[in-house]
Amino acid sequence: MNIVDLFKLVPHTEHQHGLTDSEFEAIFTPDKPVVFNFHGYPWLIHRLTYRRPGQHHIHVRGYKEQGNINTPLELAIRNQTDRFSLAIDALDRMPRFRVKGASVRETLVNEQIACKRHAHEFGVDQPDITDWKWPF
Hints:
Layout: H1 21-27, E1 34-37, H2 42-48, E2 58-61, H3 72-78, H4 83-93, H5 97-100, H6 102-122, H7 127-130
Parallel strand pairs: 1-2
Helix pairs in contact: 4-6
């Protein structure tokens, strides 16, 4: 899902664009984990969803100010917003995949390590990351 209007996250009583609790629950179930990939600071999403049903099941990944960055993918890995981290996060939050998904999780971690190693050695992301094109 892509959320363009962040005010949808706040209750409708606080902002005219906000959702009712039942509308919010229909999208973000109150008892299932939600991994929210955000291009800004994670605390903003937590503030917007404060006191919402299931707020404790919302796990936000976003920008963290941490040291020097070499490449765009390395920044995403450090912020846990890369494709590998998000898949790992999803596997870790679904009990049925904690054991069944262990080999997939290990493969994803190894991919992250390989990407970081490549960035440190060559100063750029791997070609399969930078040369990716939309197929249509």
